[in-house]
Amino acid sequence: MATPRAQHVPATALPDLGGPALRAYFAIARAWGLKNAEARRLLGDPPESTWYKWKKQQDGSPGRDVLERISYVLGIFKTLQVLFPDPTRADAWLRKPNAALPFGGGSALDRMLSGNVADLFVVRSYLDAQRGWQ
User: Domain named Antitoxin Xre-like helix-turn-helix: which ranges (predicted)?
Assistant: First the structure.
């Protein structure tokens, strides 16, 4: 049996994910108690005017990098909810010191706030491994 080939879908054919992605992101930022500077940093430090426009309107057209970052944050949030059924505990885990190798005694949020999208990937991968998804 032949394997189906992936088809290239032009970006113009994709649904506009900006609004839903931003609304989900800002809901997570509230749940995590992020300050504006922290929440903005997780998105790669978009221009301040853009940041406040997105926050106020809960809509916009973020670029590919911002959508990738939001995707990692959504995955981190979801995995924490699975690992810690108590939402308060799940949300608090991010700020707790962690002796695991990727964190070196700092918190997962410290690692995520480095500004590199790769650090969001590291935290997501760590949590997926804790969940048993490798």
Answer: 15-74
- Give domain status of residue 11, yes or no: no
9 within domain boundaries: no
Total count of domains within the chain:
1
Please name the amino acid found at residue 38. Answer: E
Sequential pLDDT tens for the chain (134 residues): 454 554 544 445 445 888 899 999 999 999 999 999 999 999 999 999 999 999 999 888 999 999 999 999 999 999 999 999 899 999 899 999 999 999 999 999 999 999 899 999 999 999 999 988 65
Residue written as token pair 């590199």: 116
pTM of the entire predicted model: 0.85
Measure the CA angle with vertex 80, ends 131 and 83; round to 5°. Answer: 45
Residue 98 counted as domain residue: yes
